Structures are given as structure tokens and as C-alpha cells.
TrEMBL record, chains A, B:
GO molecular function: glutathione dehydrogenase (ascorbate) activity; glutathione transferase activity
The name this protein goes by in its record: Glutathione S-transferase family protein
Entry's Gene Ontology cellular component terms: cytoplasm
Biological process, per Gene Ontology: glutathione metabolic process
Boundaries of every GST N-terminal domain copy: 8-84
Keyword vocabulary terms for this entry: Transferase
Alphabetized Pfam families for the sequence: GST_C_7, GST_N_3
Source taxon at top rank: Bacteria
InterPro entries found in the cross-reference section: Glutathione-S-Trfase_C_sf (IPR036282), Glutathione_S-Trfase_N (IPR004045), GST_Omega/HSP26 (IPR050983), GST_UstS-like_C (IPR054416), Thioredoxin-like_sf (IPR036249)
UniProt source species: Shinella zoogloeoides
Record flagged with keyword Glycosyltransferase: no
Amino acid sequence: MTRLLYALAGADKARQFSPHVWKTVMSLAHKGLDYETVPVGFTEIPAIENGSTATVPLLRDGDRLVRDSFEIALYLDEAYPDRPSLFCGEGGKAMARFIENWSQSTLHMAVTRIAILDIHDLLGPADRAYFRSSREERLGASLEEIAAAGKAEVEGFAKKLQPLRNMLKVQPFIGGEEPLFPDYIVFGALQWLRTTAGTKVLEADDPVALWFARCLDLHGGIGHRVTAA
Amino acid sequence: MTRLLYALAGADKARQFSPHVWKTVMSLAHKGLDYETVPVGFTEIPAIENGSTATVPLLRDGDRLVRDSFEIALYLDEAYPDRPSLFCGEGGKAMARFIENWSQSTLHMAVTRIAILDIHDLLGPADRAYFRSSREERLGASLEEIAAAGKAEVEGFAKKLQPLRNMLKVQPFIGGEEPLFPDYIVFGALQWLRTTAGTKVLEADDPVALWFARCLDLHGGIGHRVTAA
């Protein structure tokens, strides 16, 4: 096995929760590529592959090292052109950048606020200390203060997904009839919430909830590999 | 000339302001296709082409009639495959649907609230009466009440464009190095505001303002054909 995916892990190595790693898990499944997962804690990342990266996912594919979920997706399409594409053309590669930035700027801070204490609690001891100090410095507030703002985020969360909800009237995936990388981008954000806080933010019959359920079922149901928190 | 673009007009037939028509104006320019504009008021639309459409843009291309800006863009790429593509692949066609719904659900109601009285005032007499009664019924408030909510929208407008602003750190257009149809989708919304209320909602050095200026300059500066209100 020459393909390794370095993936963020909590104290329970099997509880994969990073939104960015999930994007890559789905990308590799979409391409039908085998790999071995190397679970790492936050504080172990700097030592991976001789200090090659400050973040995961990091993919080793033979002698190639690729970091960042978007770069990995681009790499996989380039390296394995005979397998199903993650972008279906140059236009898709460019437009997926908009959707990446939409997901990041619209959903990620909300998930952070809702789930921050749950994320903290599922980490190992060394990672808990790192997570608390780095996030409190970055966000300028204690984890508990950030979590207090999470209550309002739960209420407003479904509304943030209105563009996706409206789009689902036209087609079943952001990729059209079948999923493409931007589906995995938005899936990653919701899977992050599902696997950490497990907070219900969507009604069961919400078209977005139905789309998320379709995504969980993709590629042999790989998204179900981690249960809801 | 066999190509006709039916386009919404105010009392001044040259003041094209419809966001959807602007998407098509830019699409036709992108493809390098000539056409004649047929300006129509709101109340004239039902009589166009023997009642073919309830909305504009409507494109007549020889014996083909195509309505809806997105459908027109798809048609143009299919009918003129040798000219520059508006989507660059099947992935682009699908992802542009997400961006269309993002623009519509995030920007259009805000522009409506900011500009509704300006739009009313630039229409001819018959259209003013139609516009007032149809919009007041649709939105459940008088035009003046809707416009009162516009003040808050001005303040919050720039923030709604954060996904685009962040994406512009990576590439100059939603289409990548060059514009594609989703650039014209978002351009249409901001051009609508520029040509009706003319309200300043972005700082001059905002990356989104610089992107909008690049869009105005495209295709011989066709976006400048109508001055800012």
C-alpha cells in the first residue's frame, strides 16, 4: 500500500470528524482509490512526513505528497484521468472555488460555535490543551463563550443553506445528476457537525437533509462509517 | 438580422436594468453574437411573440425561441460550440446552478428593497401601476414600506458578498482566469443596483468592487452602455 491519508483524529482514532478530511475521504471514494488512513491528533501534525504540513488532510501517493483537500481533488483528477472526474471540466474546477468559499464563510463559523466544546471533549489530553489555547487566541474568546453563541447559530443554520435548498429544486446534487467535489465540500461541513455535536439543525423533510442523506449513502455508505454524535 | 433579444425597458428605452437581461447581454457578448434589442415594458411582455413568455429575456434566434437567462446560456453553448464556452464543461453547467440560486436568494431581495422606488420611478405610466400592484401583492407591503427596509440592506450588503470576496484571493473571476456565465449571474445583480438606485454598497478598494469594474469593462465595455443611476 503506497497511498496514505493523514487524517485528524480524536481520542477515539475511528471518530473522523474534520470537514476537510471528509472532503478527501469522499474524493478518494469517488475515484475508487484504496488507501490506508493514518489517524493523527492536532499536536502530531507538525511531525508528519518530516514537517511537510501544518494541516491535514495530507495525502501520500507513492512519492507524491499533496496537502489541502481542494489541491488533493485537483491532483486526483490529474493523476487518475480514467476514473470518474471530481470536477467535469475546467469550468467546474473554477466554480468549485466559489462553493468552497461559500461553505467556509457561511457554514464553518456556525459549526465551530455550535460544536466547539464537543470537539474539545473528543480530543486526547495534549490536543485538548492545544485546541483550547489556539482557538481561544484565534477567536478572541473562551471556548465556553464561543459555545454560548452557538445556541443562536442552531436556530439560524437551516436558513444559511437556502441557496442549496433552492438549487435542489432543479437537480439532485451540486454536481448535477451525480455528485462532484462541491457536494463533498458542503457535505464535509455538515458531516463535521454530525460527528461532533450531532445537533439537529434541519427538519427531516428539508430537501437539504434529504441531499445530506443521499451523500451519506454514496460510495457504499462510507459517510456512515462514523455514527452521529 | 434574425436574432432578437426582448429586453425589459423603462420609460427611457435605453436604460436597460433587468438583472436577468444583463446576464443574457453579457452571454451574447461572450459568444460574440450580433442581435437587435427589442425594448419592452412590463405590461408589453404578454403580447411578445404571440404570448410565448411571461418574462424576459426572451431570445429569438432564427426560428428558435428561448426564454430564461440560464436556458439561453445553455442554448448558446449548444448552438454555437465553436465560440467561447459560457460553462466550460458539464461540471460548470451544474455548479452554475448553485451560484444562480446563491445570487438570487442572497442578493436579489436586498437589491429589491434598496432600489424598489427607483425602479418604479424609471418605468412608464402603465408599467408603474402594474409594478406597484404586483410587487405590493407579492411582498405583502407597500413599495414605501419595502423601501424603508432598504436602508438596513445597504449596510449589510457588502457582507453578503463575502464568499465572492474570499474566492477572489484565489482567482480573478468565478470562471477562473476568465469570466464564465456565473460571473454574469452575479454581475447582473450588481448591475441592476447600479442602473436603478446607483447606491454605493462597496468600498472602492473592495475586491468585489474591483471584480465588478473588470466585468463592466468586458467585451468592449458593454456594461458601461448604461450609466450608473
